[in-house]
Amino acid sequence: MSALSAAFVRLHARLTPVAFVPEVRLHQADEPIGLWELTEGEFRSDRPPPFWAFAWAGGQGLARYVTDHPETVAGRAAAVRAVEIDELAVAAVALNAEANGVRVDAELGDILDGDAHDAEVVLAGDVFYSEAMANRVLRFLLRATRAGASVLVGDPGRAFLPRERFDELAAYDVPVSEALESVRVKRTTVWRLRAGRPTAAD
To answer: Which residue, 198, 177, 196, is CA-closest to 18?
Structure first.
């Protein structure tokens, strides 16, 4: 985590409780559109949008489920690894972990064309928002399940979630930013991915 990235996160996002998981505090933007325009304007060519600054519904639902069902990760997640393609997101992960008194190894990179190595649990929140992203994420998650990992996904009804691949574990009504989602509450489901057999599409 660079000092510059950490300073940017602290400047543009306040540490506040997550609406649906108040046990957790995250650095979140007060005004989504202003930060979106700022990062796109300054870093348009090489920086992704500031997804890190918002508690998306899929992530909130997934966090609620794991918090309420600690057996999901108990004895299986002694170490936690987070991988992001945005340096600011890496900084946010590190700062959020510190604020909540937990250890998360945050790293910059794109691992979707690889595998999850020895991960026993893989959590993915709100990742099926575009067709290209959904295809890459699904292949990665399927490789993880076939290697023995338990894969849970939090999704608020995004268009590219392949529901036929999943079993529903829980559903919640999650508060969200109206500026981002055009609604104040999103029905969000936590799913478990079935390993299945590889196909040509996988």
So the answer is: 177
Q: Which helix (H) or strand (E) holds 173?
A: strand 166-175
Report phi then psi at 102, rounded to 5.
-125, 165
Q: Locate tokens 């945005």: which residue?
A: 86
Q: What is the pLDDT of residue 71?
A: 96
Q: Which of 40-54, 61-75, 155-169, 187-201 has the lowest mean pLDDT?
A: 40-54
CATH number for domain 56-193, candidates 3.40.50.720, 1.20.140.10, 3.40.50.880, 3.40.50.150: 3.40.50.150
- Tokens for 75, please give them: 């004895």
The token pair at 27 is: 């650095």
23's enclosing H/E stretch is none
Nearest to 154 by CA among 186, 119, 123, 116: 123
Residue pair 149/122 in contact (Cβ under 8 Å)? The answer is: yes
Q: How far apart are CA 85 and CA 188, in angstroms?
A: 25
The tens digit of pLDDT for each residue in 11-33 reads: 989 999 999 999 999 999 987 66
Give per-residue burial for 115-140: e unless 16+ CB within 10 Å, then b.
ebeebbbbbbbbbbbeeeebbebbbb
